Fold this protein.
Amino acid sequence: MLQDDREDDVLILGKVCKFTTYVEITQIYFYTISNEQYNYKKGNTVQDLTLRQKLNQMFILGYQGENPDSENNSGFINLLKNGLGGVIFFTDNIKDKNSFKNAVKTIKSKALIPPFLSIDQEGGRVERTLNIYKGSHYLSARDAALKGEDFIYHQTTAIAKELQEFGLNMNFAPVLDVDTNPNNPVIAERSFSSDPDIVTKFGEIAAKAYLEYGIIPVGKHFPGHGETSVDSHKEMPELSLSLDELENIHIRPFKKLLPVLPALMIAHIHYYAFDKEKIPASISKSVINGYLRNKLNYKGLVISDDMVMGGIQGFSSLEACVKGINAGINMFIFRNSDTKIIKLLDALEKEILLGNIDIENINKSIKIIKQLKCC
């Protein structure tokens, strides 16, 4: 496992290199794939950004249909030209390999700053290439785990190579949730195991395999979605587990793998161990700044789960983003980029100017984003 205080031999596009931290690794990956292979515009760095462009950097957005440059996506393209931080791709965006590659190239050509180009490609029921393969192409985490360590490595490598071929650089995987509730409606076979040590073992293999091929792995769903009986896509689950129970089982894989995870996704789940107020972890100061940053000393990128999910709908988008930024979220995912998003960004800029958002949190987020993008 990579540690912050020693060197490891790491493969980068087939070459063995020595690096001391995952930050150095991801910087090289991002530069190699984004700048050299796809010839991004030079001269634009996050240091040169306006306040609005900094805000844009903190968002990962989706778009409609196959063609990102269609009339329906004019707002999305304008955001790319004005510093959008990332793009997330869904099944509707991917009909066949060639058209998708062209779409990714179009996005890169329009972007002011190289964006994170992200996807949920776990294997099993969560794959975004269903139209290409007419169904699932990879095994779920649970089924892959039953085949052993070598299979996990080879399947993850295959996924990483395919994402690299498409021109992507980030995958919202591996799932590090421990599947402790047999009635869980949303995790189940997406988890490697009900044993935290097995989840940790296979999660490490997967994370390192993604890194070998230039894909930034995003561990999810911190601090653990495995015990819930409610689907956070529909409503906010509530967990009354003690902190000891969370740390010994659900947080355990995340904590052990923090040194090899450049980014984490935070769940829309309320944990009574952290907050008495009913608030999802994704916008909780106690979870993000208090526990993840200060207690676990995590230095990587912290990303929300999709902000249009039912688990966050107890708050308006503006309220959720204000709370999220002040809690320490670095980037928000919204699966759309419609006029509501433009209005949200306008409103957030006003909240900063009014002093309702700590500008230092904006600058901290930009520093972390810059560190991964190496720009």
Remarks:
- The domain at 8-373 is CATH 3.20.20.300 (TIM Barrel).
- Residues 1-20, 31-43 have pLDDT under 50 and may be disordered.
- The chain has one domain: 8-373.
